[in-house]
Write a structure and sequence with these properties.
213 residues, alpha/beta, Nucleotidyltransferase, domain 5, RNase_HII/HIII_dom, RNA-DNA hybrid ribonuclease activity, EC 3.1.26.4, RNA binding
Length: 213
């Protein structure tokens, strides 16, 4: 007799959206970010209002998907969603505001880019950002809410494309491969080339390099 796995993978659903829609009587978007941890590049955010009657199959937390699968889902999400928006906060804004507030700025821009404005947002994590609508935080939301999971995919694919562009602009750092995160190739490039304008100079590893220069 076949046995179910002890901890079967739970896929995101629209359960949280359904409850919140009934409460606020209006559109609800999912919001997520990509790029809070890297040493270089902007932070991105996306907001998505899904159509419950036209859901792309296979939406999941972007971290649980391959790059190829994210790339395939991105146009499907954009084509079938009621509305979607992407926003960025630049390296300069990260340095000026700090990464937390820059993330909130990117989220605001993503929501403002929606063609249909939501009454409320489901936001991944436990920090209640000030956004242009009511906010409900969801810890582990990208694995629970389909709207947040869809937003995580759009935020990730948008930022990855931008990091590939930065790789062409600042060759030698390997941005196209590691997307600005800590990686041996990135560490070695920084030791050889020093930081470029795409680096977050207030980050401790970059700051240490500047101090030693």
């Amino acid at each position: 007799m076949a046995r179910a796995p002890a901890n079967p993978k739970a896929f995101p659903t629209l359960a949280l959206e359904t409850v919140l829609i009934q409460r606020v009587n209006g559109h609800v978007c999912g919001v997520d970010e990509a790029g809070r941890g890297p040493w270089a590049g902007p932070v991105s955010a996306a907001a998505v209002i899904l159509n419950p009657d036209d859901l792309p199959p296979g939406i999941d937390d972007s971290k649980a998907l391959t790059e190829k699968r994210r790339a395939a889902l991105e146009p499907e999400i954009k084509a079938r969603a009621v509305a979607w928006g992407v926003g960025f906060a630049s390296v300069e804004e990260i340095e000026e505001l700090n990464i937390l507030h820059a993330t909130g700025l990117a989220m605001c821009r993503a929501i403002e880019a929606l063609s249909v404005q939501p009454v409320a947002a489901l936001v991944d994590g436990n920090y209640r950002f000030k956004l242009p609508c009511d906010v409900q935080t969801v810890v582990g939301g990208d694995g629970l809410s389909l709207s947040i999971a869809a937003a995580s995919i759009l935020a990730k694919t948008a930022r990855d494309r931008l990091m590939i562009d930065l790789d062409a602009q600042y060759p030698g750092y390997g941005f196209a491969s590691h997307k600005g995160y800590n990686a041996p190739i990135h560490q070695n490039a920084l030791k050889t080339l020093g930081p470029c304008p795409a680096h977050r100079r207030s980050w401790s590893p970059i700051k240490a390099l500047l101090q030693d220069a």
